[in-house]
Prior knowledge:
11% strand, 3 domains, Aspartate Aminotransferase, domain 2, Aspartate Aminotransferase, domain 1, globular, 40% helix, seven-stranded mixed beta sheet
Amino acid sequence: MNRSNSPETGFIDPSGANAEAIRDLTEDVLDQLLGQLGAAEKRSPLPDESTALTGTIPESPRSQTDLLDDLETIVAGSMNPAHPGYIGHMDTMPTTVSVLGDLVASAVNNNMLSVEMSPVFSELEVQLTETIASEFGLGSNAGGVLASGGSLANLHALSVARNKVFDVHEGGLAGLDGEPVLFASKVAHTSLQKAAMLLGLGTDAVVAVETDANSRMKPSALNQAVEQAEHNGRVPFCVVATAGTTTTGNIDPLPAVRDVVDEHDLWFHVDAAYGGALVFSEAKRDRLDGIEEADSVTFNPQKWCYVAKTCAMALFADSDVLQQDFRVGAPYMRGDDAIPNLGELSVHGTRRAEVLKLWLTFQHLGREGLGQLIDESYRLTAVIRDRVADQDALELASEPEMNLVCFRAAPDWCPPDERDTLNGRLQRYLLSKQDVFVSLPTYRDTRWLRVVLLNPFTDKTTLDRLFNGIDLFLEAERP
């Protein structure tokens, strides 16, 4: 094939003819990237302004020097979760081996659509999802598939639940006697509404259930909501419990929710996208008691297990439901009796081998490494929680159950209707003056500051900057 219009390093020659030029390019990119990442704490957690790049396509190949300059600009202008002061979202610096795993997966470019196109990775994904399902106690026949993010994992789980409960895998929803509905707490992730919309149920099919003072679903309110839906002629089919709410990090009372599920014979899905990592902490895993009774679980190792994005999964207590209630065969692909074509069982068709970076992270850190990171983040959480509680000018949104602390400034000299504005200014001050980024979510119709303690290099120095900054800001703002 004529490649005269392509640069020498456009592709890696399988004969090794351009190996030296490829090595030079690779080393230049890696050296520059490692230099920037190794000095990440010298850049702000968030860039001052977005990087301006052109979206045009050049007529001729650009030089390696130009590309390196642009890559440097891109990294400098990107969100900087490696900074110890980046404590505002569920984003973290990834493990080194998951970055390298991404490189390897991209280089071999296998396709998780079928075993034929990803023989090693397909088998590894089947084995690893079964292993993680067993960590949750889902049973000997449990398994699942990886997905690009928790939203798709939730969509997958709810698709299977809908098909299983209503037997609509082939015939669709048109013949149903009533409107299918599912139930989740008022603070559950909005991906559930997206999933309901995509499944033809509409966003209104997600019935919001009242929560307690700590953002946990009330089982009594759930039971009442299910009974009310049945009374109104709607058809309940699923309850979604949350193990790690996005804003406050709280966990629904899973055993009590399961009791309601059993009483009404519904599908039980647990969105443990964030909190699922607790299974790797001997000290904290009991906070997930009851998850073993789930029919399906969403889990995102890209969060508290430090795997590079994206890496999520939908797990099922009975993996046979994927074959019976979701699978659409691809006749152009060779089948395998031992290992399924994962593209036939998942929302994705073509998908890259995300499993490699997950497997590498588990191998590199081990249970001890993962458990220590989780336990250390709890230690820092307790420090922040206590410092907030000790200051009259600050208030907690809820009692932390994970490594999230949601709080806000509420000094008595600031009228309640002005506190949203005050906390917005405080957030900007902390970023600009203290190099500490906390997010500013809306919770119960007001603005709060949210701290997520994920960065392995966040320490007491960072927390001191946070609270010293809060003190200086409030003193300056006091009338």
